[in-house]
Amino acid sequence: MKAYEPEMVPIGPYHHDKLKFKKAEELKLRYFDSLLQRKPEIQVEHYISAIEGIAKRARDCYAEPSMNLDSAEEFTDMLVLDGCFIIEVIRSPQLYERTFPARSSYRNLQRDLILLENQIPAFVLCKLFELVEGEGPEQHMSLMEHLLKFCLVFIPEIYPRVIPPASELKDANVKFHNKEYDSNTSLFDVKFECGGHLVMPILIVDDDTESLLRNLIAYEQLFPEDQPAYVVDYAILLDCLINTSKDVQIHSGKGIIQNMLGSDEAVVEIVNRLTDKVIFNSDSFMYADLFRDINVHHQKRWNRAVAAFHRDYFSTPWAYIAFMGALLLLFLTVAQTIFSALQVFDKPPHH
Length: 351
Prior knowledge:
- The chain has helices at 22-38, 44-52, 55-59, 72-91, 93-99, 103-113, 122-133, 137-154, 166-171, 209-221, 230-241, 245-253, 264-273, 288-299, 301-314, 317-346, and strands spanning 175-179, 191-193, 197-201, 203-205, 257-259.
- By secondary structure, it is mainly alpha-helical.
- The protein has a three-stranded mixed β-sheet, with helices on one face. The chain has a two-stranded parallel ribbon with strand order 4-5.
- Helix 2 (44-52) runs antiparallel to helix 7 and helix 4 crosses helix 5 (93-99).
């Protein structure tokens, strides 16, 4: 399954020696060579010797050993190479970022190194770390701190602060409007204005839309992290707003989306696929303020009450007529009561 398979760097026996990871194996060798230069007093034989004594225990940790690692020597070499690569990456992540400056590369590596089927036993890492940095419980703690820091950097990047979909926002009295293009307007000029008005430029969804947006996103993934990612941020916004066909209908009804596909479900599928495996920088998310303002508006009970009132009494012309009729009847009843009371007070007293 793709959810368990690495994209860039295989670790451990399950995905070792696959052709698509040939460059990754070359990268590990470069890192190992860098480690040897950094610690010239530790020779290759020292690493091999340190792991040979625990290789059998490590092999027993795997339910299905890789067929490409039949010999104990190959298995030991794999543990040394993969373990030293992990140690160098978590010890000095900036080295990897200099090698691969694209925003997606380091995030993909982080994803790969937390996959269940892409692991080597922790005691192997501890053994190698002791060899490189020295023995002692404080060194184990240092290794754990490096690993924890590495994982925590990854976790917040899973998704930015979200907003409810269009159907829920409509129930919170958010009004959707389209924005015509002019010389100063781009697709990304989305505004949340005073009074709960969400204004979005028109998006035409046809047979070429997904291909266009996905390729633009792919280009943005090659940029360094300090560069803006307009298409990625816009795709995240759409993914939040559109979860069901009802959400598409709201956008279409207001002219924000021009659906040339003929199916609302097709639009949902396209929008929800755009952000698959996409890496973004939450610190520079273009719509952070917009998300904050929308969530503040959504959380106010008064806005939901107003929306419910409009939905119950003004959703159709007949409901509007019925409400106005009831209001007129109430007015006439109150007026009749007042006139009757005035007549009573105006009558002269009986003697």
